[in-house]
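okkk here we go again. third time trying to get the pyridoxal-5'-phosphate bound version out, last two times i messed up the smiles copy paste (missing a bracket lol). double checked this time i swear
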Amino acid sequence: MSSDTATMTRTEAIQQQNDAHIINTYGARRLAMVRGAGSRLYDAEGREYLDCFAGIAVCNLGHCHPAVTAAITQQAGTLVHVSNLYYMEPQTKLAAKLSALCFAERWFFANSGAEANESAIKLVRRYWSQQGTPRPHIITAEHSFHGRTLAAITATGQPKYQQGFEPLMGGFSYVPYDDIAALAAAIRPETGAVMLEAIQGEGGVRVPHADYLRKVRALCDEHDLLLILDEVQTGMGRTGTMFAHEQAGITPDIMTLAKALANGVPIGAMGCTEQAAAGFGVGSHASTFGGNPLSCAAALATVEVLSAPGFLEEVQAKSAVFFQALNALADKHTKILDVRGAGFMIGVELDEPVAPLVSAMADHGVICGPAGPNVLRLLPPLVATAEELKQVAETLETCLGVLGW
Ligand SMILES: Cc1ncc(COP(=O)(O)O)c(C=O)c1O
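finally!!
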């Protein structure tokens, strides 16, 4: 990289400043994205990309969706923030809208997925303590991912996210995902909840057997356990239904959301049944920014578009064609071991580390990412057209060829 600022590209200038001032938790990055529109991203050198990652399942409506931009603009000129000492119309409207779409009768708003999960964990602990029988033990799954706060990395069943941060919180056990017998065996008298992703995202786009969540629900009912579903990644239409648990025909007691809830404006939410909500009382939990007018106005606009008649049906139809194209590629390329997922949350497992493939895809104008070392994660915005999805599959084929795979 040139150190002469006069001859630097815009990307190099951004990179130099980044490297001088940002704590290096994300590693080296090659591209600087400066603009987005629909399914397209533009870098600092003016190159256009087809976005097949959506900011890790965040911009489900694509970049700068007009309805969300209008809501943000309107709210930004009206009231950006006020404390939770006051009622807020966007917050209450959002809660009512979300409740109309799922089992949850009550909501707590936070700022991220990790904080939504933190709220769920705290709710479980306080719920049982309020019942007079503390049951602080929570069972989660191996390969899970629940975020980066101390409670969330403790819940996360991947040692690589925990190492160096000990002592962890305690009170968690990890069982193999999609193994109902292992889950049953881990239940103890002090177990208060089971916490799972409906499809494991970061851990490799792992889809459980069709009846797994139903069996988990039955087990929770049998042992009087609260079921927390972390739908931070799978929620908001990502898997083709508003929430992934709809496809399993069950409802949890507690659900966490974040990522796509406000299409890119930071927000987290924990929804739960009236019964579970009794665990929190006045003063038991709070967040300065949680549920502020700006994030909730953006979320309300997002949810309205996602829940418009026909929107998710179209996503399902496009997904079926995309899966066909990817399965056809898998039939031709022996390096592809599996194509799996639901809706627009897709993992392509290879028998090679995927990092070079992710780079080659970017070089060929398509942004995607990994889910663990060997799984290519495709998370297109739900507004991606059939033509754009075809382009992703074609680019994948080209890049497999370029890499000699
Ligand atoms: C399932 C799941 N839960 C929680 C999180 C954490 O969300 P955040 O990064 O907003 O804290 C993620 C992020 O990838 C996630 O995929």
